[in-house]
Amino acid sequence: MSPALFLLFLAASAADIPFQGQEATIQSAAQAELDRARTLRLPEQEPPYFIAMELSEGWSASATATFGQLQSNRTDPWRHLRVDVRIGSPTFDNVPFAGSMGSRGGTVVRALPEDDHAMALRREMWLALDSAYKGATEQFAGRKAALSGRPLPKVPSFAPAPALRLPPVRVATPETQAAARRVTTLTAVVRDRNLEQANAQARDWGGRRYLLTSEGAEIWQPLGGAALAVELVARAPDGGRIRDLRTWVAADPASLPSDAELSAEVKKMADWVDTLRGAPVGEDYLGPVVFEQAAAVELFRQLLLPEIVGTPPLEQEPDPYGIPAEGPPTARIGRRLLPTGWTVWDNPTADLKLPGGYTHDQEGVAGERVDLVADGVLRDVLMSRAPRADRERSNGHGRGLGADRRLGLPSLLWVEPNRSVSMKKLKKQALQLAKTAGLDHVIVVKRIEPPGLTETFEVALSGDAPLSGLTRPLEVVRLYADGREEPVRGLSFSGVDRRVLRDIASAGPMGPPVGVLDEGPGPGRYSLGAVSGLLGTWTVPAVLVTELELRAASGSEPRVIASPP
After folding, report:
1. Which domains does the chain have, with CATH numbers?
2. pLDDT of 392-409, one tens digit each?
3. Between residues 16 and 77, which one has the greater pLDDT?
4. Which residues, including other chains, have CB under 8 Å from residue 199's CB and lie 6 or more apart?
5. Is the Cβ–Cβ distance between 541 and 510 less than 8 Å?
6. Tens digits of per-residue pLDDT, 239-270?
């Protein structure tokens, strides 16, 4: 078969919507295997008291390009099963225990056949459930051994939830060439701009999720989204690497900006990169910092998210001396996170057209509005079905990726000040603070790397300098009293943590809702890549922080071969 005919065949195959209208086969196969799994019992082991089967199916179209040349283009159906088996009781079960390296747990993810053949589906479902049950028994035994001689936790392992039923939904029709068109178009517009790299990645996906539990829940939910990332890389005359990024995330491909709007943004990126070629390397700075709206999204997303996730950490095995290993601190209700008068709230049902909007979370619990911060103080947290001492039930925010534990994660989140000023006034206030600190300029951060696209990995050892606390700024200028802006490069943050949010002196205008791809707190946020993660939307204002430290890198690399004249 010729290459052209092969591509035509792929397009025609993808146009046949996978898994459409086969709900009865799926439901009967899943229910039969769930009923059989209820009878699982190993000698001297507890039987399952809760089983959840989560089947996700649909299509994904992904493409990459560089300098207008298509590097990859795939449209594939996908169908996966995630099973979660709990043994013991809701008061004390296997799940809240991390276990030792290499030990198994009660959660298993397995690919399912694309064909709707009942026996083929049931075979894979049974293998997943059998493996999950055996892993749950190992996890349960490990938890009991770790707690030997210690009082049992007072916090239950699992919270009750209503057993809801929602009817089937349809799988969206795949558009096989949209992602490929976007990446080629956007990298072609900067082909003549003297860049080292002009890369783009795009992914569109659509499908549905089917959740069946031993409690009687049976829920169908739609899935879908679109993500696009563009990266430009160039060199300064001194050899310094210059990098700029843009990402766009939407609830569906049709909600992305038009090709013309995207091309205009990429051209602005190239203009910025050109400007930085002649820009000086920044100097160490300690003083007020303005975060424009695009940068403020990352400021809040990276610092605020760990403080509002209410799901408690997993229990850890004791160390070799028998001392219990405590997990990282959880969100602390009553802690001041923001200045007086600020509020933060999350509501997944506020606008289902935004990325991250939903009616029910991945555990089948109806999404609720949660007023997280009132008057600057944390008053509530996002909860999954994993209880904590001060919150016993889910508020419909249980989400996660793959086999990961379901955490209480943000969906559609708003950060609102008690009052805001114009950007002109915000920058004027910043210059006044800089003058008080003996500076003739203030740093304005326009954009920051998303965690999933950062190129730096930091590890702190005793005695080391503090970690940056924020990913690197991509676009930074010095603002002077006469209104002049001077672009600088090579700066990175130093010693930033959640306490910086309390040092916000003023807020600018609220920005538009910004779609993101994210994960729960931890290292996983920094390895998601350009087009993977959980959908979410953050709406925040531009802000002025009274004092931050930025450090300068050398910004240069020795050149082996001189640049051509």
Report:
1. 3-219 (3.30.2290), 285-298+419-509+540-552 (no CATH)
2. 999 999 999 999 999 999
3. 77
4. 64, 65, 66, 187, 230, 231, 232
5. yes
6. 899 999 999 999 999 999 999 999 999 999 99
